[in-house]
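ping. complex inputs:
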Amino acid sequence: MTRKRRRLSLIGGGLAVLAVATALMLSAFRDSVVFFNSPSDVAEKHIAPGTRIRIGGLVKAGSFSHAGDDNLKIRFDITDGSREIAIAYYGVLPDLFREGQSVVAEGALDGSGVFNADIILAKHDETYMPKEVADALKKSGRWKDDYAQRAAMPVGGNTK
Amino acid sequence: MIAELGHYALMLALGLALMQGVMPILGTRNNDAALASMAAPTAVAQFTFVAIAFGALAVCYVTSDFSVLNVYENSNSTMPLIYRLASVWGNHEGSMMLWVFILALFGALVAGFGGNLPPALKANALAVQAWIAAAFQLFILTTSNPFLRLADAPFEGQDLNPILQDPGLAFHPPFLYLGYVGFSIAFSFAIAALLEGHIEAAWARFVRPWVLAAWMCLTLGIAGGSYWAYYELGWGGFWFWDPVENASLMPWLAGTALLHSAVVMEKRGALKIWTILLAILAFSLSLIGTFLVRSGVLTSVHAFANDPTRGIFILAILVAFIGGALALFAWRAPLLKQGGLFAPISREGALVFNNLFLTTACATVFVGTLYPLALEALTGDKISVGPPFFNLTFGPLFVPLLLAMPFGPLLGWKRGDLLAAAQRLLAAAALAAVAIAAGFALQHGGPVLAPFGVGLAIFIMAGALTDIAERTMFLRMPLGAAFLRARGLPRSAWGTAFAHFGIGVTLMGIVVVTAWGSERIASLKPGETIDIAHFRLTFDGIFDRLGPNYRDIVGHFTVRRASGELLGAMEPSRRTFPARNMATTEAALMTRRVNQLYLSIGDPNPDGSIPVRLYFKPQVLMIWLGALIMFVGGALSLSDRRLRIGAPRPARASAALQMAAE
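pong. complex structure:
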């Protein structure tokens, strides 16, 4: 083979691998991307039951309950201030899950409007709020300035 | 006083870095050797002042000087010494200081140990290194000053984020940064070569030890971070395809490709332009990783602060360095001469194959990590790209790479014999086939692909052993002779075998734990038991325990085999830190050879029961053991004498010498 043909075969091979990779990525994007929604979005967009989505907002105060012989069947509501949605989860909740705090749940709606979550994400420390949740709260007009202040200014004494 | 001293030292370091960035280039341009030779002493001086600044910050932390804002926000006098020291880099400002410290350290090492480098290359490379240092020192001084004072010094600090209060913090960030920042040397050498407009095969030999050292540290840093997340977050996962993890994986993939292409360039003078491009890309991906993690674009445990000016500053650094480097590459690369010819089936061809798949796999990680950010910026849609995406793209691209891996070292340079290589790998393939058959025979309803994964891992491990056996003529010569040959093998050959073997070990761990690990979730009252795999755990009760700056609610569990044999106790806990009013889960681990039992508990219920999450993780330790073996392989290769001696003689002359010697 001449130098030119060798280089062409090399470039051809590279392009082939790249084409395969692109095809893989496009098909994976179609099947495995999960969209984030606020409870209001869920109400407005009529998301089909069974579609995998993420829902974020605050855990509604007083909505938390657990049931079952093992206390692991967990129910609570996520609210963005204007709408709320009931979440069902089985298992142990993350460390920083609390009522009134922000949370993200991943799963799918069932036919009756309850959201069956299999992943619950809470924040990493007391000044952190998932960006999606902050944006959703701002959009619904329920964003309180003190969240922003707390997030931006951790200074303020260790008494609280 | 100490803080002000550190602040002042950092400013002086910036001044020195600016000098180090300009003078050597002027010197090499105007053939002024004296001006060019300024580079090395300035680099050492700059490192000295950065070290003083970093040391000053460390002293503030160790002595709990809460009049320094940064110390007040991230430390607490009740923390043990190791965490007070490690919390220097457990926050945004301090971690940038560590970044700059390691950058200056590498510069000083090049200045000190680069005696065999061509003077012009060394001067220019140190100058480029200084631009990077200056940019980040300016970033610290203008947006992230760790030495700011508080007017009224508080009596006590706010404590470090409890998730970070772990020995992992002492090791994971420094190793990760040694890796990230270590690639800056390859970048600086690449830019220096482009500035000079010519490049020799010896360039690869100069750069290789630095890339190797960085790669070793990055391997350990990633593995350490993975193990930390595994036991600290309480979920038992070892890799989450989190953007922050991907940010460290991308430079690793590009750096691995660079290591391999540098071999081709060094031995055969081919792939010069490609190697230069990879050197630029590896460090660019490190910069992108720094941007993703430090700018607040992503919210995660790694994003310490969300200050938009910082994000824009790092973005500006990113654009300037990556854009500038790629523009320079486009302009100057055509000047570089092409190297040797080789057939598609050859050692070079195999290394090109490796590079092709590694960079493509890296590209899929890049797209999966940045696509959600781009989409949100463009359309406002928020999406998450999770493990399924990466399993569907990264996985299929890695399989051919892993399959081809044992073949590479068995192929000859220039023109290889695929059939002969395949024949030598027959034993390895037979072992793999046996493993696959055994996997199918033993598993009950597990994933179909899992036995094939085990087979592939066995094939890789046996292939690495085959390589060594072939080189030492093991079993074909008397054992003593084979041993002598083994001692005579270049260390780099051992390094390759170890690193490839390590990949097999890691793959084995990943496949086995993913396919055959099991999980139980339950709520237990004292005296109740829970079974998993062939173990039975009894919950004995909970008790309180006080730590230096936390309070533990500990669950005590007795572990027995199903047969009743007592194995020991496990004590997972819920740890509350009063300074931040925050709780963490401290999982308990019981190691049985390379398998682990993993137990974490939730908050006790009012009825006295306690939620329990229990995993059996078969062969999970293989994942990190493999990374350690890769590290050892890198160290062996680094100690090869070829890398320590001076510039190489032309290949023909040394071949003639060898023939004469034989």
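The two ends of chain B are 67 Å apart (CA to CA).
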